[in-house]
Amino acid sequence: MNLELYVIIDRKMIKDRSPIQVARETITGGATAIQLRGKDMESRDLCTLASSLKKIVKKGRALFLIDDRVDIALAVDADGVHLGSDDLPIKIAGKLLGKKKVIGATVRNLSQALKAQREGAGYLSLGPIFSTKTKKDLPPPRGLKAITQIKKKIRIPLIAIGGINRDNVASVIMAGADGIAVVSAVMRTENVREATRELLFRIREVKR
């Protein structure tokens, strides 16, 4: 499971661009995991889009995950699902999806991280690390120290999210994150492919 560069495709962020084309460019740029986020979409439309995106992601040999929706993940046979604190409990999602599927969990602190790990999460997403406007009503930034603190206590991969971009990605990896999850750092750029490629290059440069 390679979570070095985890790109979230959010329909709200790409505006009038095609999510299919955005996915192709992201995969070509080297993204190792793709999450589809479609909170404002009807179930039928989300399922149709997810099915199309899965084909593209699989060709690029990346991981394909669905945000929140276990039913959609099941319907399209995605690699797994990412769950927030208000979503279906990890244990129940695990029973529905089966042991071969990946379940990611959003955490804000060490106690949440340890709890999610105990319940069967395959990886954790910690954030926001830096200030971000991608989502509303987020807690204050956790900072790089939180990455180091939590990484020392868990056994599963830890990815960092929130305000991460080409200028600060190196510091995030050096703090101990196994990878990063990004939305605006890729979705809000004119050249999605190059933005993705540069982020991956900077991640791997630190890991050498």
Outline:
Helix content is 43%, strand content 18%.
Word description of this protein:
It is built from ten helices and eight strands. With 208 residues, the protein is an alpha/beta fold. It has an eight-stranded parallel barrel with strand order 1-2-3-4-5-6-7-8, surrounded by seven helices. Helices cover 43% and strands 18% of the residues. The longest helix has 17 residues, at 43-59. The protein has one domain (5-207): TIM Barrel (Alpha-Beta Barrel), CATH 3.20.20.70. The chain has helices spanning 11-14, 19-28, 43-59, 70-76, 90-97, 110-119, 144-151, 169-174, 184-187, 192-207; strands spanning 5-10, 33-37, 63-67, 80-83, 102-107, 123-126, 158-161, 179-182. The relative contact order is 0.16.
Residue share in helix: 40-55%
Q: Strand-and-helix sequence, N→C? A: EHHEHEHEHEHEHEHEHH
Distance between the termini: 19 Å
Give average pLDDT, whole number.
Answer: 94
Name the overall outline.
globular
- Give the strand order of the largest sheet, numbering strands 1, 2, ... along the chain: 1-2-3-4-5-6-7-8
CATH classification class: Alpha Beta
Q: What is the CATH topology descriptor?
A: TIM Barrel
CATH superfamily: Aldolase class I
Hey, roughly how much beta strand do the residues contain? 15-25%
By CATH, the architecture is named Alpha-Beta Barrel
